[in-house]
């Protein structure tokens, strides 16, 4: 990770900074394929660690001269530790979340936004890795980029409408973020990711990590990419959920 962050220049520094700014925008006109590794520690009475690799392709489609459609997919590959006596670890695919944002290609007063549907697909190959429910709801993002700053929030809400899972899905998600570009392709981000489960008992509904991360855009073998590392501290979780975590992301970038 240190070698990737400190070696390999991204051609012109201005181009690296432009790409770094684009990666901070969830609805940028940029094809990217982030591979996001997460280690979250504190599960269960033995404080075990869960590993999740999120494969998150982002593909914008130009609908016409005025509008883009941005497809954002989250495909989780999970190692879920056993949390009770005699329970084995489980490896597999979790439930896929598919978001579609309709976003105007021209900004108004520097404000960038997108909105559309979000879908929950019951693709988990084990009942410990998913909810066995189909879900749908609205999603949206709004942000502003001014000089070196990018700040905004992404949100969605999912309701289940079909499936055999034992619990209905009624979950809100909010992701406020602030990114500052440091120059030379470097950037740092402070954000929180709040999940609120309306079906859970009082006192067990909120999961809220606050995270700080550093990333750099560079080019290796002619391929632009962003490499970053993030520390997560969970300020509120249901009982038996993680206390802290680390995230390492490699994003392959395909400017158009």
How would you characterize the overall build of this protein?
The protein is mainly beta. It has one domain (11-200, 213-249): Porin (Beta Barrel), CATH 2.40.160. The protein has two helices and 15 strands. The longest helix is centred in the first third of the chain and has 11 residues, at 13-23. The radius of gyration is 19 Å and the shape is globular. Mean pLDDT is 92; it is low at 4-12.
SSE layout and pairings?
Blueprint: H1 2-6, H2 13-23, E1 31-43, E2 48-55, E3 58-62, E4 67-80, E5 90-93, E6 96-104, E7 111-121, E8 133-146, E9 149-163, E10 170-183, E11 186-192, E12 194-197, E13 206-220, E14 223-236, E15 244-254
Antiparallel strand pairs: 1-2, 1-15, 2-4, 3-4, 4-5, 4-6, 6-7, 7-8, 8-9, 9-10, 10-11, 10-12, 11-13, 12-13, 13-14, 14-15
Condensed summary:
The chain is mainly beta and 256 residues long. It is built from 2 helices and 15 strands.
- Helix share bin: under 10%
So what's the overall shape?
globular
- Structural class, judged by helices and strands? mainly beta
CA radius of gyration is: 19 Å
CATH topology: Porin
* CATH class assignment: Mainly Beta
User: Terminal Cα separation, in Å?
Assistant: 27 Å
The low-confidence runs, each spanning 5 or more residues with pLDDT under 50, are: 4-12
Give, in order, the helices and strands.
Answer: HHEEEEEEEEEEEEEEE
> What's the structural domain tally?
1
Major sheet description: 15 strands, antiparallel
Any guess at the CATH architecture? Beta Barrel
Q: Provide the residue-averaged pLDDT.
A: 92
Quantity of strands, as a count: 15
Content of β-strand:
over 45%
Note the total helix count. 2
């Amino acid at each position: 990770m240190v070698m990737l962050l400190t070696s390999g220049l991204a051609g012109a520094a201005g181009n690296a900074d432009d790409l770094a700014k684009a990666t901070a925008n969830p609805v940028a006109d940029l094809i990217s394929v982030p591979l996001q590794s997460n280690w979250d520690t504190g599960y269960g009475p033995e404080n075990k660690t869960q590993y999740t690799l999120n494969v998150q392709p982002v593909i914008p489609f130009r609908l016409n001269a005025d509008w883009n459609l941005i497809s954002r997919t989250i495909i989780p590959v999970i190692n879920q530790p056993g949390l009770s006596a005699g329970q084995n670890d489980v490896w597999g695919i979790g439930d896929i979340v598919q978001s579609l944002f309709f976003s105007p290609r021209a900004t108004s007063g520097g404000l960038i936004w997108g909105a559309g549907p979000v879908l929950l697909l019951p693709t988990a190959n084990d009942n410990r890795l998913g909810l066995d429910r189909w879900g749908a709801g609205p999603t949206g993002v709004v942000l502003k980029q001014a000089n070196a700053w990018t700040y905004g929030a992404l949100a969605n809400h999912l309701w289940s409408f079909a499936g055999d899972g034992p619990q209905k899905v009624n979950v809100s998600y909010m992701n406020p973020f602030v990114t500052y570009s440091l120059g030379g392709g470097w950037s740092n981000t402070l954000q929180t990711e709040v999940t609120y489960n309306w079906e859970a008992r009082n006192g067990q509904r909120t999961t809220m990590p606050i995270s700080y991360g550093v990333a750099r855009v560079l080019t290796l073998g002619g391929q632009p990419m962003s490499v970053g590392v993030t520390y997560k501290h969970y300020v509120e979780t249901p009982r038996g959920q993680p206390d802290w975590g680390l995230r390492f992301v490699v994003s392959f970038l395909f400017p158009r």
